[in-house]
Fold this sequence. Notes:
Elements: E1 6-8, H1 25-31, E2 40-42, H2 50-55, H3 61-71, H4 78-88, E3 101-105, E4 108-112, H5 122-126, H6 129-144, E5 155-161, H7 165-174, E6 180-187, H8 193-200, E7 207-212, H9 216-228, H10 230-240, E8 242-246, H11 252-271, E9 281-286, H12 291-301, E10 306-313, H13 318-325, E11 327-329, H14 351-358, H15 363-376, E12 378-380, H16 383-392, E13 393-397, H17 400-414, H18 420-432, E14 438-442, H19 450-458, H20 468-471, H21 475-485, H22 494-499, E15 509-510, H23 514-529
Parallel strand pairs: 4-14, 5-6, 5-8, 6-7, 7-15, 9-10, 9-14, 10-13
Antiparallel strand pairs: 1-2, 3-4, 11-12
The structure holds pyridoxal-5'-phosphate.
Amino acid sequence: MYTNTYIDTRSVVATDAHRGEPPVFSDVILEGIAPSGGLFVPKVLPRLSLQEVIDLATMPYFEQAALIFERFGVDLPPSQIRALCHQAYGNNFDDPAIAPLHSLSADTHVLELWHGPTLAFKDMALQCMPLFFSAAVAKQRREQAGRAHDMAGLDYLVLVATSGDTGKAALEGFAGREFTNIIVFYPQGGISELQQRQMLSQSGVNLGVFALEGNFDSCQAAVKGAFANQDFRRQLAHHFGLQLSSANSINWGRLLPQIVYYVSAYSHMVQEGCLQAGSPLDVCVPTGNFGNILAAYYAAEIGTPIERLLCASNSNRVLSDFINTGTYDVSAREFVITPSPSMDILVSSNLERQLFELTGRDGARINQWMEALSKKRRFKVDRATFAALRKRFLADWVSIDETLQTIAAVYERYDYLMDPHTAVGYKVAERLRGPNPLLLAATAHWSKFGADVYRGLTGLAPAAPLPKPLANLNAVELDAYIAEHFKHAGDLPASISALAKVDLNSEQLIAGGTSAVEKTIVDWLRQKKN
Length: 530
Ligand SMILES: *Cc1c(COP(=O)(O)O)cnc(C)c1O
């Protein structure tokens, strides 16, 4: 069994805070963020031969995942990795391929990442990561048994800030898991009605859901603030026996499962004759926190012949501006609410990992840029880094009007209904693509965003009220209407239909900011104890 260690993006040699040894996968999945405030990356990236990539297509998805996890040096026995992957990728997905390909034309292929229980690509990671999280807790307990240790025996409290899809996927993944509690915070009014319905229908003793005043960025900042507050962490350990962790995509345990589907997609495209073995593929990803596209970058780094990465932004276009100018600037940007709310993000946490890689893993430079970002709200990369970025990435953004128009255009041209996030990706790919075959990451099923999909299909303006009989429908009823009246919409997924009947908890709204988040957590834990 091969075990990899991890370094962090802000210092060159990291040591695990608990043991004075370099951290391994189980440590980083539990810790989420490095003690320096940086992000963990594997010390060594594996390398698959072209033949190994091609051969993946002969295995079921879970075996592909297990193989890649092993090659990344996850510190669990191969038999356990296999068992966990088997549990993660089974009939909890509504397609046996798990992440099936849908070809729009001979050279444009959609990778459908929304066949999991919450209908967004977050399930690809969050049906898997909580299983490895529990395995890591169990391993840590075994190792700490008999050793005097200040953190020994503590349970975990997983905090999640969500722009809509992560929250429900994390609740699904962590519900009922041993040694773990989870609290999700979402920006009030910043998510779709269906996303809210999904979260408010979740029940379980180990989970809490709260709406925060403000937008996703302030929500994420408030949660990060609680993380960084050592007094608060001591209070949680002392009074409640809990330590904090994160299920956001800063956690390497989220990223690793996402690398799998890009390697897998390449092998299936070769198998199905859409690609010659070894010929280059371009990948377009609708992006917010830069996690999903970073996974495609790592898939290329470990041997998948992916050439260009096309980064697609909505009107919150800080990432595409960065890729086009080399300056990341959030100092004078207005946060825009769009039909693709899961990409309504300005401070993109995973870009830090990308920069770390593009600078040849120069932690000192990452420190400077991240400090500039936090103090001046902007930073500019040097010439060499910009050149390295331009070599791999292209980027553009799509307005709200164009997003809705693209849904209709694709529907008419290909008889295929896309959600607004995927439509952003489609439009950018159309503009930027070159001669290579293109793979578009489809990140959500259309039914999560029924109202905007309906506006797109019928040419209504963004935010326009829906016509009379439809205006009174709830999100699930509207989806049923769309599925019935637009013949290429396909059947409504079972998990959506089921939402029509469930009882909803009422929304619990709290003020924004770290101290409100901390107080909410403590109140929730007290109530739970009693
Ligand atoms: C989270 C999400 C995105 C953005 O993904 P990142 O990894 O944060 O870039 C895009 N589309 C949908 C539907 C999402 O849920």
